[in-house]
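Progress narrative, Year 2. Work on MFS transporter from Litoreibacter roseus advanced from sequence curation to structure prediction during this period.
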Amino acid sequence: MARSILLPFLFLLFVGTVCNSMAVSFMGFFSVEGLQREPWSISVYTGFFALVVILSNRALAKKMDRGANPFPMVGLAAFGYSVAAFALSVLPVFLTVATVGVIGFGIGSSAMSRIFSIGGVIAERTDITHSTFNAYMRATTSTSWMIGPALSFGVADQFGAQAVFQAGFAISPVWLVLWWWTAPPMRPRCIGTP
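Result:
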């Protein structure tokens, strides 16, 4: 695998994390301020969201342990995020938050574990020290977590709460394109021994 995959891969991590951080940071505020729900509604969303993230991460990790290619899992996460963002773009009600939002954004959040696992394989195959490439991935993730929440609250302030999900849905094709672009170099030998 050529080193030319490194920058697109980091950009994939960046865009995916921006998308997820936009949703995660905004949902509590949206439930209470946007939908005028009681603050306990945040606990309902967060509890079910955490459950979906844990279950999807466990299921996908088992598949990877059996040698499954992790890149389709990243595509599934991007698609799940896209569906949730679209659903809340057109029907921003608490029922959508507690159903499609919980499942879609929960599956979307599973991408980060898969991407970090893939990053370790990329480091091995490009002869980059694992700790060095891990530092790049962590710096990319941290930068994304500074940008995503600021972007979501900035959009909400200027254009309203529903616009945050519209913006997330508009960004999600970039995540899917980057996933498709970076996937082919990993397809012949997905994960495990290089």
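The mean pLDDT is 89. The chain has seven helices and no strands.
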